[in-house]
Amino acid sequence: MKSKTNQLMSRIASIAFLFITTIATAQSNSIPERSFQREGFMFEFAIGGGIISTEDSDGIQSFDEAQGAFSFPDLKFGYMLNNRLALTLSIPGMIYSVNDNDRHFGGFIPAIQYWVKDRWWIHGGAGLALDSPALYDIKNNVNDDWNTGIAVMASTGYDVYRKNNFALNVQSKLLLGGVNLNNGIDRDVVQFSVGIGFSWF
Q1: Rounded distance between C-alpha atoms, residue 104 and residue 88, angstroms
Q2: What is the Cα–Cα distance from 66 to 68, expressed in whole angstroms?
Q3: How far is CA 9 from each of CA 3, 14, 35, 201, rounded to the nearest angstrom?
Q4: Which residues, in sequence order, are bridge partners of residue 122?
Q5: Residue 34, Cβ neighbours under 10 Å: how many?
Q6: pLDDT digits (tens, 9 = 90+) for 77-101
Q7: Concatenated DSSP letters for 148-181?
Q8: Is residue 19 a contact partner of residue 158, using CB atoms and an 8 Å limit?
Q9: Helices (H) and strands (E) in the chain, counts
Q10: CA nearest 132: which of 158, 94, 160?
């Protein structure tokens, strides 16, 4: 089982590395460009999809069974300290299924976002993990438990279009987290997503 888990993590890491390498080399320094002005408060929402894998200590869920999922919600609030550095609060999340119920795994992640180049940024932090019922699938005494824990997040993106105080980017995100369920069971989660972000500064 550990080998399959390692294979899954290896695939996720390979995809993330390929995406990061592509966007890191996509920006050409041969054409001079006026730096985009980012200042004050920022807001971003993103849409996309990816995979989520969960594992419970009681064996109900296993990392070997990844699920396709949409990123929801995927929000970011922040403040620019300068043109390249921002303090943010990121709210990532995905819907997944367990025991024929839909649940949401996400978090509230204080993070730092840094523009390595004029268009390429990296973003990461750690904070509160939240495992909760999907709002449309809450059932009394069946799927109504809310669980908390710790999560870490790393993401990267590339601004493909900018105008005035708006930027459109392509991005990828990796979220690792764990929560303690009400019945003393631990649940660990890995989710990887690729999406499009809409940012205002």
Answers
A1: 22
A2: 7
A3: 10, 9, 37, 35
A4: 114, 156
A5: 6
A6: 999 999 999 999 999 999 998 888 8
A7: EEEEEEEEEEEEEEEETTEEEEEEEEEEEEEEE-
A8: no
A9: 1, 10
A10: 94
